[in-house]
Amino acid sequence: MSAVIIDGKEIARKKREEAALRASSLKQKGVSPCLAVVLAGEDPASVSYVGAKEKALGEAGMESRDIRLPAYTSEERLLSLVAELNADRLVHGILVQLPLPAQIREKAVISAIDPRKDVDGFHPVQAGRLFLGEPGFIPCTPQGVLELLRETAVPVSGAHVVIVGRSNLVGKPLAALLLRRELNATVTVCHTGSGDLARYTTRADILVAAAGKPGLITGGMIKKGAVVIDVGVNRVNDTSAKRGYRLKGDVDFESAAQKASYLTPVPGGVGPMTIAMLLHNVLKAAESCAGADETGGRRD
Ligand code: NAP
C-alpha cells in the first residue's frame, strides 16, 4: 500500500484565497484587517515563522504591524507594548511569537492580550471557551489539522483519533475540538507517560503526531489504512542541505506511507495550514470589530 499524500500547500492556498476575498470585502466597509506581530529576540525558527506569517498577510491584502524587540527586552516593556496594542483600534489581532526570552513569563504576556485580539487562541479565556464548546478563536494548528481532514473528506465522526502530544498549543485543543458533538470522534491522547506508544497508535483510525520528536512514529506503529497527520517540525542536521539542516516530521515518512491511506508530508502538510488559519482568525477579529462599530462598540 502507498498512501495518498495530502497536499497541505494546495489546501492552504485555497484557504488563503478565501481569506483574500474576505479581506477585500472588509476593506470595502472601511476596515483594513491588521495583525500586530511581536518578536522578541532573534531565534532563527521564530524569525522564519514570523516572516512567513507577514508575507501571507500581505499576499491576502491584510496589514501586519511588525514589531521587533531585542532579546534583552524586559517583561514590563513587553506588557506595556501589549497594553498599547490592546487599546489601538487599528489593530485587530495581536500575535506574540513564542518562545519568549527566558526573563519573560509567557503566561503573563498571553494573559495580558485582550482575548478579543488573541488570534492565536492561547489566552485562558479562549482556551476555556474552546473546552466548553463556545465560540472563540481556535488555535491555528489544531484548526489546520481539522481543515485538512475536512478537505480530504476523511470521516471524523465515530473515528478513533489518537493524538501523540498533549501541549496547550496542539494536543489539548485538538482533543477538545474532536470531542465536540459536531465532530464526534473518540479521542486518546498520548504523552511521555504513556509507555508503549504502539499499543495506542496501532488502534488509531486517525493518528496525529505532535510530539516534536523526529521519526518517532514508524510504519509498524500504524494501523493499515489509517489516516496520519504529522504536525511535527524538527530541524535535523544534514550536511548535504544548503542550510546545514532539513525539516523532518514526527512520522517516519517512508515506512508510514506503506501503511497509511492518507499521510501529510513535512514540510508541506500542516505547516502551511497553520498560517492560512491565522489569516482567518485575524479576519474573524476584524469582522467582529467591524460588527461592533455598527452596534455601538459591543464586540462580544
Ligand atoms: P511540546 O510543547 O514540546 O509538546 C510535545 C508533546 O509531545 C508533550 O505533550 C510530550 O509529552 C509529548 N511527547 C514528546 N516526546 C514523546 C514521546 N517520545 N512519546 C510520547 N509523547 C511524547 O510541543 P508542541 O508545541 O506541541 O509541538 C509539537 C511538534 O509540532 C513540534 O515539532 C513543533 O515544532 C510542531 N509544531 C508544528 C506546527 C505547525 O504549524 N506545523 C505548529 C506547532 C507545533 P509530555 O507532556 O509528557 O512532555
Plain-language structure description:
With 300 residues, this protein is an alpha/beta fold. The chain has two domains: 87 residues, Leucine Dehydrogenase, chain A, domain 1 (Rossmann fold, 3-Layer(aba) Sandwich); 133 residues, 3-Layer(aba) Sandwich (Rossmann fold), CATH 3.40.50.720. The chain is built from ten helices and eleven strands. Strands 1-11-8-7-5-6 form a six-stranded parallel β-sheet. Strands 3-2-4 form a three-stranded parallel β-sheet, with helices on both faces. The protein has a two-stranded antiparallel sheet with strand order 9-10. Helix 2 packs across helix 10, helix 6 packs across helix 7 and helix 6 crosses helix 10. The longest helix has 25 residues. The radius of gyration is 19 Å and the shape is globular. The N and C termini lie far apart (49 Å). The structure holds NADP nicotinamide-adenine-dinucleotide phosphate (NAP). NADP nicotinamide-adenine-dinucleotide phosphate (NAP) binds next to helix 10.
